[in-house]
């Protein structure tokens, strides 16, 4: 009886426990069904994610253009190579191989195209296989491959070799205005981001917003009928048009490269501005860099806005402007040149030559006399009033130009010696862009214009102009009458025999108003470096002198000069070459009444006209065009009908049967014009003059093929 009672109690206990467990599980299932959560984890969200496909739609970074729509920075497609080495990717190897089965032959084929040693490639593949990896990559050598390299690898038909398309920032003109445009590269998230220049300054404007598509599918990855598709539209980054002119900038870059190669200076800066509006047409520095091929970059900064210098005698233009405006400047009044001493300074102010004797103030300005400027400030203008003018020309503040990292110079003006030396550009420092802004007042009837490089911002998705810059007057430190007199005095520096710019800064077709500068460089035992080459040589010039259409400021620091060669040689080469050609290109009417050494003509009607007729008409006027192909009609040209053409400009005529010419020795500017005419997919390596081309001369050009060209610096004879 006892055993029976014990057994009955055990059965009831077991049954009770079973019932409790059943109720607990049932309750749990009911709870999960009602709430859809397990320990705070939402099962519905998890299920939706499991059966939902998400596809990212990459946005495009905005492009940067010059004032005429020439692309200066753009996104291009590059490719990352990877190799699948897992045999599981080839379920039916007898029919099709999808993985790298023959490592040795694959390595042998890939190595030269990846610029790797065969053993290196083989090691990567073998290591991946030993580690039982699904796929392997090839480091830097396997990334950012060009379309040409991708096509060459695909032509090998190697099993298991695949590519991922990526975006890369590309700069079609290489070194062209690189410290203005800046640099953008892919970050750790494979998103292109600005690092320097306008690319960094307007990174949030240029960057786009990616879109996406999501839809639901079944376990076989088949789209459901009711897929609940959600589309988020991508938004490409805004485009930016600069005030830079591609042709003027290219002329400047060519001149800068020549001086850099010929004279090996420490620093060179040059800027071309429209003084009526403040628009920067060209801006360049040396050292510079090619953003497509960085190598060893020695100068990331734009010295024109970021590096203050002592301006030297170019400052004298503003000293006489102050004297004229104050009514105390008499150009015919005489003074004793040589040295100038006042009781409140220890050593006299010297002229760089001391044997001129008694001369007029006009001649003193032409000869660049320090004594003349010191006497004007101390005896006529007054030091307090002269400081007012320095501030009126904004030498005490940054210009606010729309470029990053602008630094302002410093007016050194505490002691009498500093007040005197500031009159001729010593001690006080300015940046080139401050000098340029101040000089617009002299060129523009007293109205000082704010310099700017960003013309407009446009939404490529809608075509809407988001922002449009307008010229801005930031001051009027002098009157129109004073500006006229200052320009006349600056013109005499060029035209008068005693002028420091005489026979050096003269253009063939235009009059020039300008002022030379030779600034000492701080750092020597006596406060400044010693030696004939340890200066910053400069020129501030404008043309035509009566009504300047262009203003230019050039500085060359510590050039290597030949015996008896002056520091003005490299500076004048840049100024004369750029100013003459840029004014002609802009169709500015020459104001010199003399026979021009540069031939000009109006481009004849070439559209669909006979090749022989057009070329004969040009050759009769001593123009030698490059004719592309053997067709009997001209279908394209790099100059429009009726446009003014200089004999210094290379004309390119495309016939109706185009073929690839030999591009050896061509400049980058001509190659770009040629590729645009033929709608070629152009990729550029290096800078200077063309040495290699991927399409052989004589090859028929059809359907805009890919063209890779390589440039190198032109050798300079000893």
UniProtKB/TrEMBL annotation:
The keyword Membrane applies. It is found in: Membrane. It is an enzyme of class 3 (hydrolase). Pathway: Cell wall biogenesis; peptidoglycan biosynthesis. GO terms for biological process: cell wall organization; peptidoglycan biosynthetic process. Belongs to the transpeptidase family. This is serine-type D-Ala-D-Ala carboxypeptidase. The lineage of its organism: Bacteria, Bacillati, Bacillota, Bacilli, Bacillales.
């Amino acid at each position: 009886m006892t055993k029976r009672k014990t057994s009955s109690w055990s059965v009831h206990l077991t049954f009770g426990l079973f019932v409790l467990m059943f109720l607990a599980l049932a309750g749990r299932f009911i709870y999960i069904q009602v709430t859809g959560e397990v320990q705070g984890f939402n099962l519905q969200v998890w299920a939706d994610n499991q059966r939902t496909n998400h596809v990212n739609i990459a946005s495009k970074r905005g492009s940067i253009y010059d004032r005429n729509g020439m692309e200066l920075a753009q996104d291009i497609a590059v490719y990352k190579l990877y190799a699948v080495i897992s045999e599981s990717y080839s379920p039916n190897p007898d029919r099709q191989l999808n993985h790298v089965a023959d490592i040795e032959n694959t390595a042998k084929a890939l190595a030269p195209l990846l610029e790797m040693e065969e053993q290196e490639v083989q090691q990567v593949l073998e290591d991946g296989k030993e580690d039982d990896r699904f796929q392997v990559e090839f480091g830097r050598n396997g990334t950012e491959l060009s379309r040409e390299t991708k096509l060459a690898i695909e032509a090998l038909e190697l099993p298991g070799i695949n590519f991922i398309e990526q975006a890369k920032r590309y700069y079609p003109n290489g070194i062209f205005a690189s410290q203005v445009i800046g640099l953008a590269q892919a970050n750790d998230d494979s998103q292109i981001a600005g690092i320097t220049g306008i690319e960094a300054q307007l990174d949030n404007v240029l960057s786009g917003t990616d879109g996406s598509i999501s839809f639901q599918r079944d376990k076989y990855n088949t789209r459901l009928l009711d897929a609940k598709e959600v589309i988020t539209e991508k938004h490409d980054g805004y485009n930016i048009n600069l005030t830079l002119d591609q042709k003027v900038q290219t002329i400047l870059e060519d001149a800068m490269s020549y001086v850099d190669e010929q004279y090996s200076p420490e620093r060179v800066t040059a800027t071309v501005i429209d003084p009526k509006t403040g628009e920067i047409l060209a801006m360049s520095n040396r050292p510079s860099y090619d953003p497509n091929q960085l190598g060893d970059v020695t100068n990331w900064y734009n010295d024109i806005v970021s590096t203050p210098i002592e301006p030297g005698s170019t400052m004298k233009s503003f000293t006489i402007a102050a004297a004229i405006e104050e009514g105390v400047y008499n150009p015919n009044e005489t003074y004793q040149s040589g040295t100038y001493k006042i009781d409140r300074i220890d050593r006299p102010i010297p002229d760089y030559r001391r044997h001129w004797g008694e001369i007029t103030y006009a001649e003193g300005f032409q000869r660049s006399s320090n004594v003349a400027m010191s006497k004007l400030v101390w005896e006529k203008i007054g030091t307090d009033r002269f400081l007012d003018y320095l501030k009126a020309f904004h030498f005490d503040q940054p210009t606010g130009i729309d470029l990053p990292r602008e630094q302002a110079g410093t007016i050194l003006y505490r002691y009498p010696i500093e007040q005197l030396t500031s009159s001729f550009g010593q001690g006080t420092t300015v940046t080139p862009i401050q000098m340029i802004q101040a000089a617009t007042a002299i060129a523009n009837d007293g109205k000082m214009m704010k310099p700017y490089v960003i013309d407009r911002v446009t939404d490529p998705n809608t075509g809407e102009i988001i922002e449009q810059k307008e010229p801005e007057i930031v001051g009027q430190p002098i009157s129109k009458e004073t500006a006229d007199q200052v320009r006349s005095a600056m013109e005499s520096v060029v035209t008068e025999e005693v002028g420091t710019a005489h026979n050096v800064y003269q253009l063939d077709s235009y009059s020039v108003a300008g002022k030379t500068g030779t600034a000492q460089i701080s750092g020597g035992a006596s406060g400044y470096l010693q030696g004939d080459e340890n200066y910053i040589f400069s020129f501030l010039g404008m043309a035509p002198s009566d009504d300047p259409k262009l203003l230019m400021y050039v500085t060359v620091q510590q050039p290597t000069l030949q015996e008896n060669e002056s520091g003005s040689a490299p500076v004048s080469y840049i100024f004369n070459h750029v100013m003459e050609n840029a004014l002609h290109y802009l169709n500015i009417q020459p104001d010199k009444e003399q026979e021009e050494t540069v031939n000009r003509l109006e481009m004849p009607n070439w559209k669909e006209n006979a090749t022989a007729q057009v070329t004969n008409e040009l050759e009769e006027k001593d123009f030698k065009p490059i004719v592309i192909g053997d067709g009997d009609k001209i279908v394209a040209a790099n100059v429009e009908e009726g446009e003014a053409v200089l004999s210094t400009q290379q004309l390119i005529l495309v016939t109706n049967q185009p073929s690839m010419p030999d591009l050896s020795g061509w400049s980058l500017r001509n190659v770009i014009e040629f590729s645009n005419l033929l709608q070629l997919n152009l990729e550029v390596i290096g800078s200077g003059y063309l040495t290699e081309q991927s399409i052989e001369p004589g090859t028929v050009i059809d359907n805009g093929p890919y063209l890779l060209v390589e440039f190198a610096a032109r050798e300079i004879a000893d």
